[in-house]
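Lay summary. Proteins are chains of building blocks that fold into shapes, and those shapes determine what they do. In this project we predict the shape from the chain. Here is one chain we studied, written as its sequence of building blocks.
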Amino acid sequence: MADSTIHGLTDGVTANATDEIPVARSPFAAGDDRRITPAYIKDYMLALANTWANTQTFANVVLGSTSTLAWSTDLFHARDAAGISAQRNLANSQAHRIYAETDAGLANYARTLIGYVDTSDGIGLAFRVNEQAAGTGTRYQMVIEPFTTVYMKGNLEFFADSTRNIGGAGSNRPQDLFLGRSFAIEATVTAGGTTGAQTINKAAGTVNFAATATALTVTNSLVTANSLIFCELRTNDATARIANVVPGSGTFTINLTAAATAETSCGFFVVQPD
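And here is the predicted shape, written in a compact code that computers can read:
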């Protein structure tokens, strides 16, 4: 096939959009309209460079199986395996932000961060799903909505001790709790030799009746007049037996049927009706 030239394409002259060169081989198949235009040359050269400084529009962008889509030198999207995309950069941890709302300057926003991030909370580098907001941005709720079951392969712990709840009072409560072994609750165990009234602001604990005592009052900020309080004697005393437990506002009193013969330990557990 004879060589062809684009009309008037010499130094300093701009090609016409309708100019074209017939071609006889790759990248066109035999049945295609095998002609090169200035628009095709532009797209082809941009693809070769792999870097676009300005906005370009393509119908499709297809990368090779070992290629990456990168921004500068720190953010890379790659293909790890069939059907698996990856964001990776050697030893540099990666994260992704999804915005619910923002302004052009990113001063006011609501977003979720997903990825490996090290913050100042003392945990160090960890995989995090973090709701974030700044300025006039709204901190939205997070909903995990599986069709059936969420499975955990590790432990579930809260970052700060005794500051978060599971469920809510009177609503949004889990239905049942199934345990395979045991449960533990924070308690104060009163040492032997310390008898009489005690202040224990916890849901469980122990107190000690002195010999000859028939009642003992515990001050407890968790207790109301409607609290359910379960008690048991932990010492095999010859005469002491629990008669009743009477709750009040911030206190409860354990009464015995008869005076204790010797120092007697008693455990309690407080349950709040909901």
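What the prediction tells us: Confidence is low (pLDDT under 50) at residues 1-9.
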